[in-house]
């Protein structure tokens, strides 16, 4: 059995790839998803920036529920299984290996396995994740318009997101465990010169406090061992991001296609990787804006490319 296209991951990128690939004429398309389709956004209690989805208090789950059904109408097959590896055969086809030991071949592959924000590791972080604890200022900053927020971290992303939030929120308290930052000097200067950013340095987040409505603040341990409570309904953590690129890792430790030093998949504007017939989409690809609408766009672009690629193969 040979698939026209295998889609790895059933988040916004994979589901949109599935919609476009099947509706665009590929016959044999299977999407492999290890859990429920929908992706990371299903962990979010509210989404306001998916165009057209204007429902009041629309959760990420609400947004994603119709997506798989829409794809199935056009013939997308969905298999609930975890892919362990995508490898390429000498005839340029691909083998998709699964955690149950079985495998399947495909003419083209669209990977959309997403990314996982690292946790900072304080008490209550998991409990309030998506309900006041956030890893995305573009997604959630607006919910705190005119309010105070805390930002945790000291790298480029933390500082840039602190600057972004300082334009929306009344005050940003930046908590960092050292007294120096790992970022461009110009970014550090801008942070230091922004009136509504307060730096709390040499401080370790201890516990996020909350009530049934959500987050109320953060307790941090200062360098002298005392605890300071910061009142804020929003806590943003930027302590790194793991790209879910394991499926591209080969037996010899190399990756199937070219990657950036931080482990994102290199793609061109058409989501083509360095290997013909292999596409990377959504949060896992280089320079991803990490937004649902962008992941969906990538999925559509990759599927259109895969259709052309498979079509050309059959004419050779
Ligand atoms: C709490 C939270 C709030 C957010 N808020 C917003 C927002 O307001 N607006 C916005 O636009 N974006 C928001 N985002 C970001 C958005 O969710 C992501 O940008 C988007 O989901 C990325 O889509 P994706 O398809 O690339 O990956 P993902 O959504 O991460 O989906 C990847 C899928 O692949 C599956 N998978 C991974 N590995 C394997 C494997 N080996 N085999 C099989 N399946 C696998 C996973 O189970 C997952 O379902 C938020 C994210 C979070 C966590």
Key attributes of the depicted protein:
alpha/beta, FAD/NAD(P)-binding domain, 2 domains, seven-stranded mixed beta sheet, 17 strands, binds flavin-adenine dinucleotide
- Give the second-level CATH assignment, the architecture of the largest domain: 3-Layer(bba) Sandwich
Secondary-structure element order, N to C: EHEHHEEEEEEHEHEHEEEEEEEH
Named CATH topology of the largest domain: FAD/NAD(P)-binding domain
Count of helix runs: 7
Structural class: alpha/beta
- Quickly count the domains: 2
Main sheet? 7 strands, mixed
* Helix content class: 10-25%
Average residue pLDDT? 96
Number of strands: 17
Which CATH first-tier class of the largest domain would you pick? Alpha Beta
Shape: elongated
